[in-house]
Amino acid sequence: MNLTPSSSTRFRGYLPVVIDVETGGFNHNTDALLEIAAVFIDFNDDNSILPANTVRHHITPFLGSNLEPASMAINKIDPDHPLRLSIDEKEALHDIFDRVHDSLKQYQCKRAILVGHNASFDLKFINAAVKRCSIKHNPFHSFSCFDTATLCGVAYGHTVLARAVEIAGFDWDGSQAHSAAYDAEKTAELFCDIVNRFEPIYRKVSNY
Predict the structure, then answer these.
(1) What is the pLDDT of residues 70-110, one digit of tens each?
(2) DSSP sequence for the chain
(3) Which positions are annotated as active-site residues?
(4) Which of 17, 152, 164, 195 is the most exposed, fewest CB within 10 Å of its CB?
(5) What is the value of pTM for the model shown?
């Protein structure tokens, strides 16, 4: 069967959106969601993909949420900093989800799929926040995702984000690591690079 290559067919009708979250710990049910960033993906006429715009929000910890000292020492987030300009997690999710819905219409895709480095971690925190906030129109697939840690292990032989970025030939600034926007943008660079590397194989098996 011949397929016409397009954004609506490249990933079986799913639109990849890169997500990174910074949190107050590892437990998605009890630990605070502190930052979220989304990097949208553009499709070129030659069927290659590239990172597009980034949306980022600082989030106010939900009432009763936990902040693990070990996690806070790594991400160095001060939830009470007067210049942090955080918003409620429901407002943050609604903003990102509205933008995802717009992209779904633009590219004629049926559903978004989360792309992340160790993506199940990010997806669990998103799903938990969606449940807490009673959001009914979550554009992301509830359990499927693209994990760039796995993809990087295949493509570059390394699963750690910083090392994979360097092996792929992109710049890495350790001082910006553990910022949701920075990590999401680097993850997006890796995802696009890997997909574009495999595009000739996809073209061959798809017979277009």
Answers:
(1) 999 999 999 999 999 999 999 999 999 999 999 999 999 99
(2) -----SHHHHTTTEEEEEEEEEESSS-TTTBPEEEEEEEEEEE-TTS-EEEEEEEEEEBPPPTT-B--HHHHHHH---TT-TT---B-HHHHHHHHHHHHHHHHHHHT-SEEEEEETTHHHHHHHHHHHHHHHT-S---EEEEEEEEHHHHHHHHTS--SHHHHHHHHT----GGGTT-HHHHHHHHHHHHHHHHHHHHHHHHHHHT-
(3) 178
(4) 195
(5) 0.94
